[in-house]
Amino acid sequence: MGYGTTSTVADAGLIGRSSVGGTTREDTNGDGNIGSDPPLGNVTADLTVTVNLPGLLSTTINRTTTSTAGTGVYTFTGLPGGASVAESDFDLAFTTPTGYFPTLSDVAAFAPANDSDGAGTGPDQLNTQALGKNSAADRDRGYALPFTVAGTLYFDRDGDNDLVADGEPAIEGVTVELVDASDTVVGSDATDATGAYSIPGASPGISYTVRFVNPDTANFRAAIGTNGSDNDIRTLTGANGVTGAISGTSGGTTSDVDGAFVGRSIVDGVTFEDAEGDGGNTTADDDVVAGVAVTVTLDVAIPNRLTTSYTRTTTSGADGSYTFSDLPGGATGEVSFDLDFTTPNGYNETLADVVAFAPATDSDGTGTAATNSTTRIGVLARRRPATRATLCPQQSPALSTSTATSTTTSSPIASLVSRAGPSNCARALRSFRPPQPRQPVHTPSPVGTPAAMSCVISTPTAAISPMSTARLATMMLTRLSATTASQPPLSRSPVQRGQAPMPRGSASQRLAVPIMKTATAMVNGTASRIPQFQPGRRTGRGR
Hints:
Helix content is 7%, strand content 35%.
């Protein structure tokens, strides 16, 4: 270029000394603390810088970049800064990667170095942020993948919350809801044939609960579990079971969030002494019998809900009562049960299903008739099967002595538990006669002794209880009265001076006199022991 010429094509370019950058990360637990979380690359960042430098520059700069794979780092450089936000400010926006969502941002406990920066105009946020001269603005962003909540709903047959080890059966077709802190349902599923459910879409860093919706409030109720048990239900919302707080990690599955329901049906009853042996629990003498082993076996086949068979055992209490609770009910053909009562030693079964006492006070026996078996939801199914002990059993003449014994047996009662109302209870009662404090020894009488006296009782060394004494005396009086009434009146033979008159008549009549005296005293409560009577022994002085 020569002297005295002017150039019109010589330009000069200037760039700024400020920058905006940071790191995009996967917030694994969604808590907003991303300082040590793994980087997440390929996240798009859009920057807008507004510049108003007085007398120098007024412009708007728009740039886009992508965070680097493997490091998650992004950078915008060469930006003009200013003395204030009025001279130079920026806005930053990130495009959420497919499948991810932004996690908690601007958590004060982690700001400014380790928090995820969110939208807003406050310090360390993304909108209208001052870009100072020769400065480097750092803005980080955290994202997470949704997690899944999964588990199983069980029917707890024994109510111990030990669901897995006990192999408890599944409940099918029950709605399970994932609920956030505002009680908003964010996802739901229905349990399958194995009781399993799976709800995706939960956000790490947010607390949820799982709600098991009761499918049949008349037949089931949610069971509350304990810490450390398989059952995660901790509270009830109406008839529904609700777990404690649930959380998860990015892209993971929070599994084994399990629940349990039990039934609302009951089988109960009383084991009692059938003193009269008439098959009814109707008199004051029909006392209770404690400690009787009772077993219930259930077969359950509720379509698309619950299928199982199981057995539970118990013993009748001090008041003779027994109870099986938390049982499932169902329509006829869906749920049935069998009861077994183990007859205690020293007892025999009495009459069962006597119409005169049915259904409330009869002894329930083996069978499938309605009075024995059928009940519905809302009806107490009560069973009263009965046995009694023989106080003085007939002995074989071939035996010289014998002690009363019995064989322990079981008596099944088939029954159904079916639908019909707000509660359900099947009651079965069995009656027994308590064994005596000391079993009497029974000696057969000599040949020719009338039937009324065919069982002779030897006195135990210990006193017989008043109740046993009174009953025995009553039996003796009844039998002796019936026998002596059919015999001719007693006559007296001549006696020698100083001798008591000797009664004549049958052997049973002669023996009846002292027995009836003793029995009368026993009934009146004036005798505490039974004297020993021997067949053929004279009751007066010898001739």
